Known about the structure:
This protein is α+β, with helices and mostly antiparallel strands. 50% of the residues lie in helices and 18% in strands. It has 2 domains: 42-115; 119-300, no CATH class. Strands 1, 2, 3, 4, 5, 6, 7 and 8 form an 8-stranded mixed β-sheet that branches. Residues 276-299 have low confidence and may be disordered.
Amino acid sequence: MTQSHDPSAPFRHALIDVHSNYRGQRLAHEPPDELVSEQVTLRVWRPHVTRSLFFLFIVLIIGTIGTIVGIIGAFAGAADRLNGDSAGAGNFFTGIYYLLLFIQLLVIAGWIVAICMPIKEPIAEYGLLVEGRAPAAAVSYAWIVNTIRARQAPFRTDFVKVKGNAVLTLANGRDEGMAVVRPVGNDLFLGWSMWRSRSTLVLIGHLFRDMFNSIGTGRTLSMEIKTSATRSLRELIHSVTREGVQAAILQPPIPEDAARAQLDQLRDVAEPQTGYVAGHPTGAQPAHYQQPQAQTGQVRPPYQQQPPG
């Protein structure tokens, strides 16, 4: 009895092997990753302290110069009064002193604005160069898009172009991540990075939150659940990128012209956002990408396969 030939079988089997190998490498427990948690650590504090020290250094320099100018101006003013000169050097130094004081106030105002601006905190990253597979960029990105839709993950998702490169963005609160597919000469680079953005004021608030979290078990468990969401976002980005790498190495039987057409329809990151939550558009504008079910010859990821009848 002959069986119908499934052209997607080799790719699906290879994809299953890729995920199985990854899971096989994650059987042992690991130390806690301090970058995943929102807990405030010295490593997280470092860029915030560096930024504040920069403004403090400028304030001290200007303050020191202003103090010297003020002292000179006081002596010059006293000499002018003794000589009966109302337009002497004392007025000049006094004007310089007030100018430096004004500049110092501007620097302090700039520091206040700076502590309200978020700083990017790297969480994790991954990158891989697939040699000689630059022509597979469109198919690889299309497979990543279809895979992330099939997962139905409850994260903000968007598909954009950044400087002509196809990018997938994912976000969960302050946690953000991106996966990029870009040709590098004849090779193809696939990678992802994940980060968190917090201002110095928010960091101070989180520091006090961490101090009182140990009071109640419920608060501690709530923080752990929030951290698990960050871990799941990291693993999701890594998982779909692995599938994109496999799609670049062993091209799945999906129409390359359709994949390129979808890639051309990606909006630029500067244009209005049309995000996705659990595979459904969140913005008012229609999505550029067609639903995977509507694509002719579309091969679904293994977890989308319909059971045999």
